[in-house]
């Protein structure tokens, strides 16, 4: 029976890790920008 | 192999209580501080309609993460393998698809308050009532699943009795939501989303330093090969079910509509699109913890506790504290959002729409009722949480057919002038009933799918037979409370 390969599983996990780290960085940069421009809320 | 909660508790109850008290002081303090901005009804319910991109994106991420992602994604991976975690990840499509809708909602209803208000103005009273029943039932289901998750987390990780842990988490969330309204909800959501994202990255990196994905794959081939199968019919169905559940939940729920209405003009579309991309990897990483637990044969107390227990087992007390903080933050971010958005529905649509009608339309009384309603909702949730109603999955997926049946009425209602209003009401009612029958007689993984398809057929066929001609400007008018206050 066809199975997901170990490489695919590894790529999936490392890619998700990378995107998650980038995501939190973007949020913090946006916060800094909005705070500076006084556009938080 | 199963063990009792106290046997696997890694944090001492004292440390657990210490963390809770610390968070309680922080959230309540921030709620009071930000609450100064929410004296008016619009300030309390919609943060003065001026939320920027950073807070807008973060609140969508935090609310959509929920404890269901950090606890249910590992469970789905444990039961349905790789497809399980991928099926959960498809829920991000809901956020991405809601992005253009958020822009349209803000444009069509510049003075709107709730999703139910849209249904009332767009489709009339019968559809409004059906929608309110679905929406309130779903919100309560979600709230109960969150409260239960909180109690289970504290019990499993720190040995704190379920009822005590659940009660304290609910009380803290009610406290800061009442004190600060949507400002407190959105402000704390930012902190909570950052905590969750950083925490989950740390936990997964720590797991990866101890065991590679390839080694986990090898262990699964030996012990649970079905979890790696590409053609896993129930799991494949769960992908569609997860996708439709996500769409239905986001399209109909006032949690998402109130944020769309609260964001500054031009922010909503960007914020939701960004949130979808930031949220996407979270269930994959959380699901990976479930697969790792299956591969490593970690003892499991309850399937929905597999993620936290794996982290605690591999990383010791530091991992336990980290997971505790992550799940506590994700719980709080969803409970506060649900309390605020459901409170808005109860006050704006049920109390001031259905019950009081023309008797009381002042914004002052609506603002006062909003705070008390949040307290009432908290008490109702607490009462229901006292009875453990099953695992998180069974509680949450029961609502799948209901929310699935709202997708087409909402979507066509927002974009299609011809949508037949009576068909919208029937689509939600009949789609829910037949979807629930499929849930009971076939399985949880088809409930949302059946509910959505039935609802779609009713809306499209009835509209083809008897098209309406809606005037969009009807949605832009001020609500009665503003006219008469």
Write the layout of secondary structure elements.
The complex is a heterodimer of chains A (41) and B (485).
Chain A: H1 6-36
Chain B: H1 5-8, H2 13-35, H3 41-46, H4 53-89, H5 92-108, H6 115-123, H7 125-158, H8 162-210, H9 213-223, H10 233-252, H11 254-262, H12 268-279, H13 281-296, H14 306-355, H15 363-385, H16 392-397, H17 400-404, H18 407-415, H19 421-441, H20 444-465, H21 480-484
Helix pairs in contact in B: 2-8, 4-7, 4-8, 4-10, 4-12, 4-13, 4-14, 5-10, 5-11, 5-12, 6-7, 7-8, 7-14, 7-15, 7-19, 8-13, 8-14, 8-15, 9-13, 10-20, 11-14, 13-14, 14-15, 18-19, 18-20, 19-20
Q: Based on Cα principal axes, name the global outline of chain B.
A: globular
Discrete helix count of chain B: 21
Along the chain, the helix and strand elements of chain A come as: H
**Sheet with most strands of chain A:** none
Which chains share the greatest interface? A-B, 30 and 50 residues
Tally of DSSP β-strands of chain B: 0
What global shape of chain A is seen?
A: rod-shaped
Question: Low-confidence parts of chain B, pLDDT < 50 over ≥5 residues?
Answer: 480-485
- Give the quaternary arrangement of the chains: heterodimer
* SS class of chain A: mainly alpha
In percent, how helical is the residue content of chain B? over 70%
Using only C-alpha atoms, the radius of gyration of chain A works out to 18 Å
Order of helices and strands of chain B: HHHHHHHHHHHHHHHHHHHHH
Terminal CA distance of chain A reads 54 Å
């Amino acid at each position: 029976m066809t199975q997901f390969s170990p490489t695919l599983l590894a790529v999936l996990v490392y890619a998700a890790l990378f995107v998650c780290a980038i995501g939190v960085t973007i949020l913090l940069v946006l916060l800094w920008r909005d705070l500076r421009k006084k556009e938080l809320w | 192999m199963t063990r009792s909660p106290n046997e696997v508790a890694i944090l001492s109850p004292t440390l657990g209580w210490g963390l809770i008290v610390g968070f309680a002081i922080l959230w309540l303090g921030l709620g009071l501080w930000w609450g100064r901005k929410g004296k008016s009804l619009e300030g309390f319910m919609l943060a003065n309609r001026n939320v920027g991109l950073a807070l807008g994106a973060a609140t969508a991420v935090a609310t959509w993460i929920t404890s269901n992602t950090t606890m249910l994604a590992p469970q789905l991976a444990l039961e349905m393998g790789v497809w399980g975690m991928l099926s959960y990840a498809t829920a991000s499509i809901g956020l991405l698809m809601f992005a253009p809708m958020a822009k349209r909602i803000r444009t069509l209803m510049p003075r709107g308050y709730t999703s139910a208000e849209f249904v009332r103005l767009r489709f009339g009273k019968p559809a409004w009532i059906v929608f309110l029943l679905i929406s309130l039932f779903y919100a309560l289901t979600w709230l109960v699943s969150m409260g239960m998750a909180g109690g289970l987390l504290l019990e499993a990780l720190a040995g704190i009795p379920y009822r005590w842990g659940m009660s304290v988490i609910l009380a803290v969330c009610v406290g800061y939501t009442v004190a600060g309204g949507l400002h407190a909800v959105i402000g704390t959501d930012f902190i909570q989303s950052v905590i969750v994202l950083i925490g989950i990255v740390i936990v997964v990196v720590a797991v990866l330093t101890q065991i590679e994905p390839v080694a986990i794959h090898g262990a699964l081939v030996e012990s649970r090969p079905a979890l790696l199968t590409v053609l896993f019919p129930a799991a494949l169905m769960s992908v569609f079910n997860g996708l439709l559940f996500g769409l239905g939940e986001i399209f109909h729920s006032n949690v998402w509509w109130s944020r769309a209405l609260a964001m500054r003009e031009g922010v909503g579309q960007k914020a939701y699109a960004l949130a979808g991309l930031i949220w996407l990897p979270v269930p994959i990483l959380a699901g990976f913890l479930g697969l790792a637990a299956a591969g490593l044969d970690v003892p499991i107390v309850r399937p929905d506790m597999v993620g936290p227990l794996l982290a605690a087992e591999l990383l010791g007390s530091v991992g336990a504290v980290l997971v505790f903080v992550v799940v506590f933050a994700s719980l709080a971010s969803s409970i506060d959002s649900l309390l605020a958005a459901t409170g808005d529905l109860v006050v704006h649509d049920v109390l001031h729409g259905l019950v009081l009608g023309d008797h009381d339309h002042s914004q002052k009384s609506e603002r006062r009722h909003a705070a008390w309603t949040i307290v009432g909702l908290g008490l109702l949730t607490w009462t229901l949480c006292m009875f453990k109603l099953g695992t998180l999955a069974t509680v949450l997926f029961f609502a799948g057919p209901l929310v699935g049946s709202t997708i087409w009425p909402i979507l066509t209602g927002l974009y299609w002038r011809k949508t037949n209003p009576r068909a919208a009401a029937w689509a939600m009612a009949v789609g829910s009933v037949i979807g629930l029958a499929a849930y009971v007689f076939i399985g949880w993984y088809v409930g949302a799918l059946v509910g959505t398809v039935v609802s779609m057929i009713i809306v499209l066929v009835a509209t083809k037979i008897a098209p309406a001609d809606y005037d969009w400007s009807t949605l832009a008018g001020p609500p009665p409370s503003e006219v008469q206050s």
